[in-house]
Structures
1.
Amino acid sequence: MRVSAVVSALLCVASVCALTRAEEYRRPGLEGPWNERHLTVPMNSVNVLAGPGQPMLLGQRYGDQVVEAGPQFIHPGPDWKTSPPGNQLWLRGGVAFGLTQDWEAGALFLPFQFTPHFSFSNITVFVTRGFRFGDVDAAFRLSFQTPNKNSSGERVWTLNPGFPVLWRAGRFRFDGAVLVPFATRDWWVGLNVPLRASVNVTPHVFFGLESGFVEPRFDVAGNANVPLGALAGYTELFGGSVVDFTAHFAWDRFLSPAPPEYVSALDVQSYRIDFGVVFHTLVR
């Protein structure tokens, strides 16, 4: 009886959510449901980034580092060699601003790594110029991280320029990009083609699947991979803010087309978990 009551209650909640109109939690100047949003943040609004899944963070990879907002747990399997080895726990936070209808800028300026050692890591900065064509958005995005020093003591900048696209079709939404990360001085170059298909099952609840192709560095043999991941989110209105609660799971090295010798092409022991919250609010 208790199980039946719980199931009935959940069905009632789902029915109410399904009947909820998107406009009931949209605010002037802010975008509401996930499936209706544009590629860039609306003008005079700000996203407080403390959770994964937002468009400006799709494909933010720098070498083997996968950048997302919010708490992040990375478990490297035995075939994924990290330096230093072991699980990684991160916490990143930042903002994205809508400068105009088509220009967006922001940064993850609070990047903390807690394990296997504590450090204040590289700040990730992004600037996007968007173009809107009805249900299709396109953009040019320049992302980069604050520099590291290489073995020779030289400052190395890592940049991640590319061309994101977005297509909306009713409740469905498709995000993709072609990105070409590279580093100065060391002059390595990579390729990243992230893909995400998502759907709003109600105006509040959305789910997505991710894949694509990643070659972190062409100068490292056997490093190409096909990732596989899933995104889940819930959108709600609190006061004057639209809020996304999101969670993300990914096998970042799910399938390697040409792995090194004695390394399995399929890697489900290496995975990443991200979760958190994003606030969409107007600049006052």
Note: The first strand starts at residue 45 and ends at 50.
2.
Amino acid sequence: MKECILIGYGKLGKQFESYLRSEYPHLEFSYYDDIACNQGLINANPFINYTKIITGVKNSSVCISLGYKHLRLKSEIINYLPKECLLGFVHQSSFVDENANVGLGSFIYPKVSVDNDSQVGICCVLNTGSILCHDSEIGNCSFIGPNVTICGDVKIGERCFIGAGSIISNNVVLGDDVIVGAGSLISSNIPSNKKVVGNPFKFVDKLNVI
């Protein structure tokens, strides 16, 4: 592996790059990001051209480093790419049980715990200090904030955002595209496309997260 293509180079992209450089010090990077391109960053390309990387991806790895405001777009992009090219990262201070599975392209930040028989989907983010307990699942392209606790036998859909410090109780099911505000306690199932916040949680029409 000689090159990594970063799709998105905002704050999250810079974090991803830093983690990957620590793991692969000889890795060369190129970027697909409009701001980076406009600033004249070496090897930067306009974002809209990301579909062109498919033809040359055989010799490269790809990291989709778009933030939590672009989960749907992230989900669309992975449909363009062969999954085996997706590059992720697990921080050395984190614990991933040998019977757990972390999907390709997912990023596991420091001091995260992924317990036995848990499943993390493709291109997810588990931020610092988050806990995924036994037999739980996180769908593709979901973003788990810092210090989130996901208890046992929980199922979280695709493209979900779970705000910092939230707790998802045992046996709860969250549909796709659910947004959970910071510090919430989720004690029952949430249908797809809903926004919730609070302890006890309540449904809201607007939430200044995504």
Note: The chain has three helices and 23 strands.
3.
Amino acid sequence: MPPSKPLCDQSTPFGAKRERRKEARPGELLDAALDLFVEKGFAATRVEEVAAHAGVSKGTLFLYFQSKEELLKAVVRHNISGHFKEWNNEFEAFQGSTAEMLSYCMCAWWERVGATRASGISKLMVCEAKNFPDIATFYQQEVIAPGQALIRRVLQRGMDRGEFRLMDLDYTVYSVMAPMIFLILAKHSPGVCVQDQVEMNPKKYIAAQLSTILYGLSVPPGDLAQSPKKARA
């Protein structure tokens, strides 16, 4: 009895399969590199391990990336810095209040970066930047500076629209960045950043940080009835 399906499916020739496999290799190498860099650190990871993890030879890796440093840069661009154009376009199109925009930015950043495998890049940079100044400079230029610029645009929008008070943007940007960095560190080092019995809920954490950023800790004038001392009286 002849086979129910030809041994060689003419609709998907062998050459096409090889071409698709070739096109997929850079992404597979970037995924493998991200896993190993975050797990072992940049210094301890060898390119041979990355190639093996991706199922290719060391020589194949070097066809796409000239060095381990270039591989790390490609990982950062693929997962984070390559998206800033898209994120800035979202800023231009946003229609809500600036408080809503800031909330959207923090939540979207967590969903797209913090809650994903890419969050390990921030942890990696915190651990490795001091020993690799060239990589630290690259990360500063391609991630930190564009990220700060985008946050500045949000805060400036709020001031221009009369929604936010005047502020020193050079330092206020850190009020937005610092809580998100802590959230990533808590994710990757829970026993160090938070108590073992505390389960960090990212949505509640971001809501609490956003409330503090927008309203501070003081009870607004005329709203003293909400303070515990007034309530007890």
Note: The first helix runs from residue 14 to 40.
4.
Amino acid sequence: MGVVIAVASGKGGTGKTSVCAGLSTALADMGRTVLCIDCDIGLRNLDISLGLPDNGGLSFLDVCQGGYPLSQAARHPDYPKLAFLTAPMNCPAEKIPMESFQDMLRRARTEFDYILLDAPAGLGAGFRLAASAADRCLIVTGAGPAAVRDAARVGEVLELMGKTDIRLIVNRVDRDIMRAVRLTVDDVMDTAGLPLAGIVMEDMQVPLAAAFGRPLLRYARRCPAAACCRRIAKRIQGFHIPVALG
């Protein structure tokens, strides 16, 4: 059975969506079948980070309502094992039936190895929709105190929802800045109170890949952020990969 992973964040601007896209393409590049779902209703942009900016595609609501099968989810031209469902534009998260969403994911578990849900930032209805059906949760944070505090709050809410597999990804890590403020990744982990899934280095290739409409792992295969996403993807699969800067 496939594994459903919610990728969440306490606030916007942490790079959650680019991390979700990086992990999805890395898993697909390793031969895993992956379904990537944009759950950020009204502010969807996962397609851009995946390198699918011109893809209209099905929304997950189209599938939830029974009008289309999962087999018609958009397929990535560079990653044949990666399928994508976008977010609906005109239906608020509060109006989406939790039962039909979870039923769709139960079907997806039989067809894909991994289902990654790009949850909207914060703790609103869209976040709860994605988190409710997740087997694992990844919280993406920056190293700044406000982002870490928000990540800790998201972790607390997930625990109250009964989630036990919750891990932290520290994104956009800049060695020089962290050294200047005498901050370590261990400090971030301690403040958030969450175990670490991995770190992703600050990398100008990330916005450049999005600007050119290319997935990061194809646009700059050897860049630091792409290497970090590959390492985290291996950990997701159960491989023991040490955490390293760069």
Note: The first helix runs from residue 16 to 29.
